[in-house]
Amino acid sequence: MTAPDVPTAIDAAEEQALAPVPPASLLTVLRRLKHHPLGLVGFGLLVLIAAFCYLGPLFWKTNQTDVNLLDAALPPGPGHPLGTDTNGFDVLGRMMAGGQVSLQIGLLAALFATTIGTVYGAVAGLAGGVVDGILMRLVDVLLSVPFLFFVLILSARFHANAWTLALVIGAFSWLISARLVRGEVLTLRVREYVLAARVMGASRRRIIFTHLIPNAMGVIIVNITFQVADAVLVVAALGFLGFGLSYPTTDWGSQLASGVTYISADYWWLVYPVGGCIILTVLALNLLADALRDAVGRKAD
Questions:
Q1: Distance (Å, rounded) from C-alpha 138 to C-alpha 133?
Q2: What is the 3-state secondary structure (H, E, C) of 214-263?
Q3: How far apart are CA 56 and CA 2, in angstroms?
Q4: Crossing angle of helices 272-297/217-240, nearest 10°?
Q5: This prediction's pTM
Q6: Taking residues 104-133, what's their average pLDDT?
Q7: What is the per-residue pLDDT for 298?
């Protein structure tokens, strides 16, 4: 008789022990979202806003580069459904262009901040002890620094474009992500598959990127959605304060700032439409984030 293939059985047992518990599948999350009315409203609003910003220019072509003072400050009417601004730009086309930039900066900043915060929080949560204490006290110190203050300084010091603005916002937004992921890792690191990986000699890098981060994706995805909403608000605030993007690039905040200047002249079409876009975008992202938090956080159906 031949001896049983002991190494193969051991390898199979190791793979089974090391296999992480899979997070809820995309189909499961989508099925749960169907029962969350506000989440569906948020998702629908976000789709409409994205279609308005990215598909709208394909059907409504306007010149957003050349100033035309002859058509300046025209009220809504034929040829300009939302009127023109004080430089003669069509407001509807301007909102589409500004929305593209605002959404792109928000998404890039959120991805950058979440990437840094996820790795930082996972390292702190897995290390524990003194290392965790030092890393999280550093986060507490940075959280005490006024975020917008430093962003304003950097925006004034360096020429702002979409990429640099996204990096600056992301570089100061990862702290909340780090705390959230660290809290999730503290609960995951005592799970059986993580303990088995440690016993079998898996490196910390393998544990973090193979076991901890994939099983914390629920928290990470929800945090990205909130981060996009926060970044859109920050971009709007910078533009409103005059530290946003420079001509010919525009964003919703810059448009709102120029419109408020003339609100006393009853140029309402320069303020309310773009202000409504900012409110609806942030509202849609927050509603979707709340729904995702509920859908991802529930146990499997």
A1: 9
A2: HHCHHHHHHHHHHHHHHHHHHHHHHHHCCCCCCCCCCCHHHHHHHHHHCH
A3: 72
A4: 170
A5: 0.81
A6: 91
A7: 52
